[in-house]
Design goal:
Blueprint: H1 8-16, E1 22-30, E2 33-40, H2 47-52, E3 78-81, E4 91-94, E5 99-103, E6 108-113, E7 116-117, E8 125-134, H3 142-147, E9 169-175, E10 178-187, E11 196-198, E12 202-205, H4 206-215, E13 221-225
Parallel strand pairs: 4-13, 7-11, 10-12
Antiparallel strand pairs: 1-2, 3-6, 4-5, 5-6, 8-9, 8-13, 9-10
GO molecular function: glycosyltransferase activity; peptidoglycan L,D-transpeptidase activity
Family: Belongs to the YkuD family.
GO biological process, one term: peptidoglycan-protein cross-linking
Protein backbone atom coordinates (compact mmCIF):
# COMPACT_ATOMS: atom_id res chain seq x y z
CA UNK A 1 0.00 0.00 0.00
CA UNK A 2 3.03 2.29 0.34
CA UNK A 3 4.16 4.45 3.22
CA UNK A 4 1.23 6.83 2.91
CA UNK A 5 -1.43 4.17 2.51
CA UNK A 6 -4.00 3.25 5.15
CA UNK A 7 -3.87 -0.12 6.84
CA UNK A 8 -6.35 -2.17 8.79
CA UNK A 9 -4.01 -2.16 11.77
CA UNK A 10 -3.67 1.61 11.70
CA UNK A 11 -7.42 2.01 11.39
CA UNK A 12 -8.05 -0.34 14.29
CA UNK A 13 -5.47 1.47 16.38
CA UNK A 14 -7.25 4.69 15.47
CA UNK A 15 -10.56 3.26 16.61
CA UNK A 16 -8.95 1.96 19.79
CA UNK A 17 -7.71 5.45 20.60
CA UNK A 18 -11.33 6.41 21.08
CA UNK A 19 -11.40 4.05 24.07
CA UNK A 20 -13.70 1.63 22.32
CA UNK A 21 -16.40 4.28 22.16
CA UNK A 22 -17.80 3.31 18.79
CA UNK A 23 -21.38 4.40 18.48
CA UNK A 24 -24.09 2.77 16.43
CA UNK A 25 -23.54 3.90 12.87
CA UNK A 26 -25.48 4.85 9.81
CA UNK A 27 -26.54 2.37 7.17
CA UNK A 28 -26.05 2.88 3.44
CA UNK A 29 -26.31 0.84 0.27
CA UNK A 30 -23.05 0.06 -1.54
CA UNK A 31 -23.92 -1.69 -4.78
CA UNK A 32 -26.39 -4.33 -3.66
CA UNK A 33 -25.04 -4.58 -0.13
CA UNK A 34 -26.08 -2.69 2.96
CA UNK A 35 -23.21 -1.61 5.15
CA UNK A 36 -23.12 0.00 8.57
CA UNK A 37 -20.45 2.60 9.21
CA UNK A 38 -19.84 3.35 12.90
CA UNK A 39 -19.67 6.86 14.25
CA UNK A 40 -16.53 7.37 16.31
CA UNK A 41 -16.30 10.01 18.99
CA UNK A 42 -13.85 12.72 17.87
CA UNK A 43 -12.64 13.69 21.33
CA UNK A 44 -9.32 11.81 20.90
CA UNK A 45 -7.71 11.62 17.45
CA UNK A 46 -5.44 8.74 16.45
CA UNK A 47 -1.80 9.77 15.81
CA UNK A 48 -2.11 7.88 12.51
CA UNK A 49 -4.79 10.25 11.29
CA UNK A 50 -2.99 13.28 12.65
CA UNK A 51 -0.08 12.23 10.47
CA UNK A 52 -1.88 11.55 7.19
CA UNK A 53 -4.04 14.65 7.55
CA UNK A 54 -1.18 16.85 8.71
CA UNK A 55 0.17 19.93 6.97
CA UNK A 56 1.86 19.48 3.58
CA UNK A 57 4.32 22.40 3.35
CA UNK A 58 6.16 20.78 0.43
CA UNK A 59 3.24 21.41 -1.93
CA UNK A 60 3.46 24.29 -4.44
CA UNK A 61 0.74 25.93 -2.37
CA UNK A 62 1.26 24.67 1.19
CA UNK A 63 -1.71 22.66 2.41
CA UNK A 64 -2.65 23.24 6.07
CA UNK A 65 -3.43 20.45 8.48
CA UNK A 66 -7.01 19.26 8.76
CA UNK A 67 -8.86 19.97 11.99
CA UNK A 68 -10.14 16.44 12.44
CA UNK A 69 -12.65 17.52 15.07
CA UNK A 70 -14.54 19.18 12.20
CA UNK A 71 -14.70 16.02 10.06
CA UNK A 72 -17.15 13.17 10.57
CA UNK A 73 -14.82 10.33 11.53
CA UNK A 74 -16.53 7.79 9.28
CA UNK A 75 -15.23 9.68 6.22
CA UNK A 76 -11.54 9.44 7.04
CA UNK A 77 -9.38 7.43 4.65
CA UNK A 78 -9.08 3.73 5.49
CA UNK A 79 -8.77 0.27 3.96
CA UNK A 80 -11.84 -1.96 3.95
CA UNK A 81 -13.03 -5.22 2.44
CA UNK A 82 -14.08 -4.36 -1.11
CA UNK A 83 -17.88 -4.01 -1.18
CA UNK A 84 -18.13 -3.01 -4.86
CA UNK A 85 -17.46 -6.23 -6.78
CA UNK A 86 -15.52 -4.26 -9.43
CA UNK A 87 -12.15 -5.19 -10.86
CA UNK A 88 -8.95 -3.94 -9.21
CA UNK A 89 -7.90 -0.47 -10.25
CA UNK A 90 -11.49 0.79 -10.60
CA UNK A 91 -12.74 3.92 -8.87
CA UNK A 92 -16.29 3.54 -7.54
CA UNK A 93 -18.20 6.51 -6.14
CA UNK A 94 -21.25 5.65 -4.05
CA UNK A 95 -23.03 8.97 -3.83
CA UNK A 96 -25.68 7.84 -1.35
CA UNK A 97 -23.06 6.61 1.12
CA UNK A 98 -20.67 9.54 0.38
CA UNK A 99 -17.76 7.19 -0.25
CA UNK A 100 -15.21 6.76 -3.02
CA UNK A 101 -13.54 3.36 -3.30
CA UNK A 102 -10.31 2.54 -5.10
CA UNK A 103 -10.48 -1.22 -5.61
CA UNK A 104 -7.26 -3.10 -4.78
CA UNK A 105 -6.04 -6.47 -6.05
CA UNK A 106 -6.26 -8.27 -2.70
CA UNK A 107 -9.99 -8.16 -2.06
CA UNK A 108 -9.79 -4.79 -0.36
CA UNK A 109 -10.42 -1.18 -1.31
CA UNK A 110 -9.16 2.17 -0.10
CA UNK A 111 -12.18 4.14 1.02
CA UNK A 112 -12.29 7.93 1.02
CA UNK A 113 -15.05 10.20 2.23
CA UNK A 114 -16.46 12.56 -0.40
CA UNK A 115 -18.78 15.49 -0.83
CA UNK A 116 -21.14 15.41 -3.79
CA UNK A 117 -23.34 17.70 -5.83
CA UNK A 118 -26.70 18.98 -4.71
CA UNK A 119 -29.81 17.32 -6.09
CA UNK A 120 -30.18 18.36 -9.70
CA UNK A 121 -26.45 18.75 -10.24
CA UNK A 122 -25.33 15.14 -9.83
CA UNK A 123 -24.01 12.77 -12.49
CA UNK A 124 -23.83 8.99 -12.56
CA UNK A 125 -22.61 6.34 -14.96
CA UNK A 126 -19.43 4.75 -16.24
CA UNK A 127 -16.46 6.61 -17.59
CA UNK A 128 -12.72 6.93 -17.16
CA UNK A 129 -10.13 9.39 -15.99
CA UNK A 130 -9.38 11.34 -19.14
CA UNK A 131 -6.97 13.86 -17.66
CA UNK A 132 -5.16 14.67 -14.42
CA UNK A 133 -3.86 18.00 -13.16
CA UNK A 134 -1.98 19.28 -10.13
CA UNK A 135 -3.22 22.62 -8.78
CA UNK A 136 -5.53 22.89 -11.78
CA UNK A 137 -7.03 25.98 -13.36
CA UNK A 138 -10.77 26.24 -12.77
CA UNK A 139 -13.18 27.28 -15.51
CA UNK A 140 -16.77 27.80 -14.36
CA UNK A 141 -19.23 26.00 -16.66
CA UNK A 142 -21.57 28.17 -18.72
CA UNK A 143 -24.56 26.91 -16.74
CA UNK A 144 -22.88 28.00 -13.49
CA UNK A 145 -22.12 31.45 -14.88
CA UNK A 146 -25.82 31.79 -15.70
CA UNK A 147 -26.88 30.73 -12.21
CA UNK A 148 -24.11 32.61 -10.43
CA UNK A 149 -23.14 35.73 -12.40
CA UNK A 150 -20.30 36.47 -9.98
CA UNK A 151 -18.37 33.50 -11.40
CA UNK A 152 -18.12 35.21 -14.80
CA UNK A 153 -15.06 36.96 -13.44
CA UNK A 154 -13.25 33.66 -13.95
CA UNK A 155 -14.53 32.84 -17.43
CA UNK A 156 -10.91 32.91 -18.58
CA UNK A 157 -9.87 30.61 -15.76
CA UNK A 158 -8.91 30.86 -12.09
CA UNK A 159 -5.27 29.83 -11.56
CA UNK A 160 -4.47 27.02 -9.14
CA UNK A 161 -4.16 27.79 -5.46
CA UNK A 162 -5.79 27.26 -2.10
CA UNK A 163 -8.76 29.45 -3.06
CA UNK A 164 -9.37 27.52 -6.29
CA UNK A 165 -12.54 25.36 -6.05
CA UNK A 166 -10.69 22.35 -7.53
CA UNK A 167 -8.16 22.22 -4.72
CA UNK A 168 -4.79 20.52 -4.93
CA UNK A 169 -5.58 17.94 -7.62
CA UNK A 170 -8.24 17.20 -10.21
CA UNK A 171 -9.09 14.07 -12.16
CA UNK A 172 -11.36 14.76 -15.12
CA UNK A 173 -14.15 12.28 -15.85
CA UNK A 174 -14.58 11.40 -19.52
CA UNK A 175 -17.18 9.20 -21.18
CA UNK A 176 -16.48 7.74 -24.63
CA UNK A 177 -13.56 10.13 -24.96
CA UNK A 178 -15.65 13.24 -24.23
CA UNK A 179 -15.23 15.43 -21.15
CA UNK A 180 -18.35 15.17 -18.98
CA UNK A 181 -17.35 18.41 -17.15
CA UNK A 182 -17.47 16.45 -13.88
CA UNK A 183 -14.32 16.06 -11.80
CA UNK A 184 -12.90 14.34 -8.80
CA UNK A 185 -11.08 17.13 -7.03
CA UNK A 186 -9.82 18.49 -3.76
CA UNK A 187 -11.31 21.02 -1.39
CA UNK A 188 -10.01 23.09 1.49
CA UNK A 189 -13.51 22.94 3.01
CA UNK A 190 -12.92 19.60 4.68
CA UNK A 191 -15.91 20.12 6.98
CA UNK A 192 -18.16 19.71 3.92
CA UNK A 193 -17.15 16.08 3.31
CA UNK A 194 -20.17 13.83 3.61
CA UNK A 195 -22.53 16.56 2.47
CA UNK A 196 -24.20 17.53 -0.81
CA UNK A 197 -23.35 21.16 -1.45
CA UNK A 198 -21.30 21.43 -4.65
CA UNK A 199 -22.41 21.89 -8.26
CA UNK A 200 -22.00 18.32 -9.33
CA UNK A 201 -18.39 17.28 -8.76
CA UNK A 202 -16.94 14.70 -6.36
CA UNK A 203 -14.66 16.40 -3.88
CA UNK A 204 -12.22 15.04 -1.32
CA UNK A 205 -10.11 16.53 1.44
CA UNK A 206 -6.95 17.88 -0.20
CA UNK A 207 -4.75 15.32 1.60
CA UNK A 208 -7.01 12.54 0.28
CA UNK A 209 -7.16 13.77 -3.31
CA UNK A 210 -3.35 14.02 -3.36
CA UNK A 211 -3.18 10.40 -2.17
CA UNK A 212 -5.74 9.18 -4.71
CA UNK A 213 -4.08 11.14 -7.52
CA UNK A 214 -0.79 9.33 -6.83
CA UNK A 215 -2.46 5.92 -7.15
CA UNK A 216 -4.39 6.29 -10.43
CA UNK A 217 -3.48 7.04 -14.01
CA UNK A 218 -5.20 8.42 -17.09
CA UNK A 219 -7.52 5.70 -18.36
CA UNK A 220 -8.53 4.47 -14.91
CA UNK A 221 -12.17 3.30 -15.09
CA UNK A 222 -14.65 5.08 -12.86
CA UNK A 223 -18.21 4.24 -11.88
CA UNK A 224 -20.45 6.81 -10.20
CA UNK A 225 -23.55 5.22 -8.71
CA UNK A 226 -26.34 7.66 -8.10
Amino acid sequence: MGNNGPSRRAFLLGAASFGGLALSGCSAMVGNRQITVPNLLPAIISPYYLQIYGAMPEERFPVPAVDLNKVDQRYLRTEVDDPTGEKPGTIVVETSARFLYLVQDNGTAIRYGVGIGRDGFTWSGRGSIGRKAQWPTWYPPASMMQRQPETREFAGGMPGGMNNPLGARAMYIYRNGVDTIYRIHGTREYWSIGKAVSSGCVRLINQDVIDLYSRVSVGTPIIVRG
